[in-house]
Structures are given as structure tokens and as C-alpha cells.
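Moderator note: this is an archived Q&A kept for reference. The question asked for a predicted structure of one protein chain; the sequence and the answer are reproduced below.
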Amino acid sequence: MGGTFDPIHHGHLVAASEVQARFGLDEVVFVPTGQPWQKADRHVSSAEDRYLMTVIATASNPRFTVSRVDIDRPGPTFTIDTLRDIRDERPDDELFFITGADALAEILSWKDVEHLFQLAHFIGVTRPGHELSDKGLPEDRVTLQEVPAMAISSTDCRARVAGGEPVWYLVPDGVVQYINKYHLYADPQATPVPVHPAKDAAGARPDDARSDGARSLSS
């Protein structure tokens, strides 16, 4: 499942669970976007913060894992690179790429689109009643999955935090605590500053336990 996850919320988690059950997936790998070029017009939380929030949110589900392939790869994030890296790690696995239906509607403009459908089956999660208008997508490689919880959005969660409103029960409890502890989203227009200025000699935080349209789900 690709996404910015800024922050990850229950809509993402319900979507992953619904897709896992419908397709009988052995595992759902959450892949936080490294450098989302399409969001250059707004401040995006650091990749490390988004990664850690995703780890916190998914820790209780044994079928959920989190990958660093996009945030550790330098340069803008392209879905084709994500899939190739995952394929290299799991050469014998059948891959499904879960994303928002709004992003999926723009897939024909993504980098190396002619190779994307060779690498994975694409699943667009959406609110009930949504229809994918683009008829140019291969029907045998694209599926829509309705998820009622997609009414939750990361944009709304950030706005609520910035406005001093609660996000309890919209995002996992541990993510609420992380946001509060490191003051994420308090002022979305502020100049980005390091959330954890101290790093060890290897460049990792002391407390550490994509350029196409691959936007986060309801981001």
C-alpha cells in the first residue's frame, strides 16, 4: 500500500484490512512515500516521522508490515521504482498495489506506465458509489474496492490538529500521542524544522525502535 501517510489514519488501516481479506493476501506492506513531488506546494512531514507513525499504527496487526524502500531511495518517488524494489525483495510473490481511486484515475500519466501493470494488480480504494471514469485501464489488472472509512482524510486530520481540534478515533491512539509529542501539524505553513534534532553517529534517531501520481489514500 503506497501513500504519504501524513498522518496515517483509520481509513488507511480499514482499506488495507478489507483488501487483505477480499484477495486473501498473506501480507500488506505499507510503503510511505519518500519525496512526494506532487505535494511540493505544501509542507510534508519528514519521511522518518511518517514512517514511524506508520509503524506505530500497524504494529498490532500481524499481517501488516512497513517498508523503507521509498524513503531510503534518494530523489523523487516513482511507483515504478517502488514496485521494482519490492519485486527484487520478493521475486516469487504476486504483487497488489493499493492506492486511492483518485490517484488510480491518473495512472496513465505515471512514469513507465506501460510496465506498471506487468508488475502488479492495482486496487483503487474508494468511498461507496465511486466509479472509475477512465476506460483505458486494463480490466484484468485494476480493481475498485469500496471502503466506507475512506470518508476520513489525512488533510482533515492535519487541519483539525492545526485548529486545536481532537483527532482521537480518526487516527490510532499511538499516532495521536506521536503527533502531540512532536508537535506535528501545529502550523502547516511554518518552515519545516527537524522534529528530532539529535541523531546518533549513524544518522538514525536515538529513539528509532514517489515522481508520479501515487498519492496517499485520502491524503
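Archived answer notes: The helical segments are 10-23, 47-58, 69-72, 79-89, 101-104, 113-119, 154-162, 173-182.
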